[in-house]
Amino acid sequence: MAVRALLLVVAVAVLAGCGGNDSTAPATTTLVTTGVVTTTPVGPEGASTTPVAWTSDLGEVALLTGVRAASHDGYDRVVFEFRKGVPGYDVGYVRRPVRADGSGAPVAVDGGAVLLVRMEPALDADLTKESAPRTYTGPARLRPGATAVVELVRTGGFESVLTWAVGVDETRPFRVTRLEGPPRIVIDVVSG
Known about the structure:
Layout: H1 2-17, E1 27-33, E2 36-43, E3 52-54, E4 62-72, E5 75-83, E6 88-94, E7 98-99, E8 106-107, E9 113-120, E10 122-123, E11 141-142, E12 149-158, E13 161-168, E14 174-179, E15 184-190
């Protein structure tokens, strides 16, 4: 029986090493007890509650075209999609009240914690065109029905800085990823 359990542990270790590197797949923990193998999602690899910032060398203003959020196994994913490239970002938890860019007026955001997403240079309207047409025409307040992400709220677009607040049920680890084709900022919030 001990030999069988040892062989099972070795087989699991070998198979775990054979997987590809899919950065969109959640990390897993493998537990072996009494010959039964269980795999449990633990959220995105590298997730933490530490603020994350990245400075873009984008020579023009990125234009927001889409905002969405959905639940996945072990995490909720928030996506900001752009035209003209990925802007720089600063993502981290903030204390309430959340303030609107420019006016400083308080903005209500549902959830037990607020993850503020500040993107620069970025806007949701093309100021280079006559009448500055909106490039993002979706709602300024979204309730995605996800596990941990309660609400997304636009809190400003001022002087090439675009800000959204992500209401989370509680302070949870998150990971930020930049993607191209189309340009996106992806925020994965651990939910399991």
